[in-house]
Structures are given as C-alpha cells and as structure tokens.
Design a protein that fits this description.
Order of helices and strands: EHEHEHEHHEHHEHHEHH
Mean pLDDT: 95
Helix content: 40-55%
Number of helices: 11
Distance between the termini: 56 Å
Bound molecules: NADP nicotinamide-adenine-dinucleotide phosphate
CATH topology: Rossmann fold
Shape: globular
Strand content: 5-15%
Low-confidence stretches: none
C-alpha cells in the first residue's frame, strides 16, 4: 500500500484529502496539533475504509513540531505522497496583527513547507519515486487580500514548487510536484481566521472534496499548477495576465475595515 502524509489532516481540505486518499487505498500519516482530533479522524478512516493510520501530533510553527514530522518522513514505511496542506490566514491587516502572529503565519505557511519538502525530496529523489503536493492559493498569484502577509506566503509556495518541479534533480528522479491553488473553499479556515463568509457570493465557493480530487488528478497527470474549477482558472488567468495596476484596483483591501 502506498503511504501519504497529510498536514492539517483534521479539518477542511486536509480532512478531504484523507477521505479521498483512504478511498484510493493509501495508508495515512495524519498531522495536526490536536491529539484528540487526530485520534478521532484515524478511527473514522479505519471504520470507513479499513485504513492503516498513524498520527503525529505536531505544531508546525515550532522547530520541535517540524522535527517530529521530518523524522517520520525519513523513517519507514516510506512516504509516497507528502501533502503540505496546513496553513493559516488572518482577518486583521498587517499592522494590526502583531509581528509575532505574522511570523507564526510564515512559520506555518512557508517554513514548515520548506522543511517538510526538503525532507521528502531527499528521500524521494534517492529512491526515484514519490510526489509532493503543496497547497497554495489563487490569492498567491497577484494582488489580493491587500495589507496581509497571506498572499505573499502563498506566492512563495507557488514559486518554490514551480522552481523545484522544473529542476533536473526532481524531474530526473521521477518525483512529481504540484502546487494547488484553490479559490474560496468551504472549510473551517475563514471561521478560524474570523473572516466573514458572507462577502463572497455563493457561486464563488468550492467544495473541498472536489478541489482535492482535481488536485490529485492534476498531480497524477504531472501538472505543476492545479487550479480547480473553470471560474478560478479564469480568475487565475486574469491575475497572471492583467497589469498589476488593474488587478490592484479590484483586490480586497482588509485594511479598509481596520479599526483606527
Ligand atoms: N479554505 C479556503 O478557502 C482556502 C483557499 C485557498 C487556500 N487554502 C489553503 O488550504 C489549506 C488548508 O486550509 P483549510 O481551509 O482546509 O483550513 P482549516 O479548515 O482551517 O484546517 C486547518 C488544518 O490545519 C491544522 N493546523 C492549523 N494550524 C496548525 C499548526 N500550527 N500545525 C499543524 N497543523 C495546523 C488544523 O488542525 P489543528 O488546529 O488541530 O492544528 C486543521 O487540521 C491552507 O494552506 C489554506 O491556506 C484554503
């Protein structure tokens, strides 16, 4: 059985990844902070699909948390698929968030992805097989969510993944890498961040499981970027090709609603 390690496995997109991968016959290593939620998810997956599941409780904003997960990536049974999914955003503008919180965002959205990808690629390139799926966002393609660190963190994931996926080291080892760029997806993300879910119209929202199925199909097909749904493919094209001065005009500025 192939084994997949999914970060942020207990809610939203990560939870959907675990369901679809279990259905596809993967054994799973689940990572999140809450030990209780991890055990519950492992039991659900075992009951529904008979999945063999390990749990690694870890806060990926910390050195210890990253070290626990990288140790598992380098151990046996080997990891065939790493899904770097855990990520956070804030509803407050940059200057209101506080530098500690901003650093935590970068620690999780960027530094943990860097460290886990490094661990995975070192074993996958040596054995000439494996895949890494990094969850970015359409917001990482251009001016979006102005006055926030989040889009910059996701832009990093896109550039990092594109760069490595196209490298001789990764390609010659037959390792696949894809950055997933979801648009608004119904998960716990916005509620956790305190972001109002009333602003985007209903037609803009995506279903987590459909996003995940598209991402896994695109990864299998060797696509470096995966943008689920036609509406977000159009948005992604616009963000990539319109002059930045135009796309900045329609970007959501969270500092506009900031308390003075
Ligand atoms: N939802 C959207 O509209 C959307 C759109 C574009 C991109 N994305 C991206 O998709 C990814 C998943 O988001 P989601 O919407 O599924 O979020 P979510 O529903 O809030 O789930 C977040 C998951 O990450 C875990 N997590 C949070 N902080 C962590 C930490 N410090 N260490 C380890 N695990 C942590 C959570 O469990 P614990 O709290 O127990 O740790 C939970 O399992 C993120 O990278 C996000 O940026 C989401």
């Amino acid at each position: 059985m192939p084994t997949a390690l999914v970060t942020g496995a207990t809610a939203g997109l990560g939870r959907a990844f675990t369901r679809v991968l279990a259905e596809q016959g993967y054994d799973l290593v689940l990572v999140a902070r809450s030990d209780v939620d991890l055990k519950e998810r492992a039991e659900e997956l075992h009951a529904a699909y008979g999945t063999r599941t390990e749990i690694v409780p870890a806060d990926l904003t910390t050195d210890d948390g990253c070290a626990a997960v990288t140790a598992r990536i380098k151990a046996e049974p080997s990891i065939d698929l790493l899904v770097n999914n855990a990520g956070i955003g804030y509803e407050r503008p940059f200057l209101a968030t506080g530098i500690d919180a901003e650093e935590r965002l970068l620690d999780l959205n960027v530094r943990a992805v860097l460290r886990l990808t490094d661990a995975a690629l070192s074993v996958m390139t040596a054995r000439h097989s494996g895949a890494v799926l990094n969850v970015a966002s359409v917001a990482g393609l251009g001016p979006a969510w102005l006055s926030s660190t989040y889009p910059a963190s996701k832009a990093w994931i896109i550039a990092f993944t594109e760069s490595l996926a196209s490298s001789n080291q990764v390609r010659s080892a037959d390792v696949k890498m894809t950055a997933l760029l979801p648009g608004y997806t119904r998960t716990e993300f916005h509620q956790r961040a305190g972001i109002p879910t009333t602003f985007p119209p209903a037609w803009l929202w995506l279903d987590a499981e459909r996003v995940v199925r598209t991402a896994l199909n695109d990864l299998a097909a060797g696509k470096v970027l995966s943008v689920p749904s036609v509406r977000y493919k159009v948005a992604a094209w616009g963000l990539r090709h319109l002059p930045r001065s135009v796309s900045r005009l329609v970007a959501w500025d969270i500092s506009a609603a900031a308390p003075s």
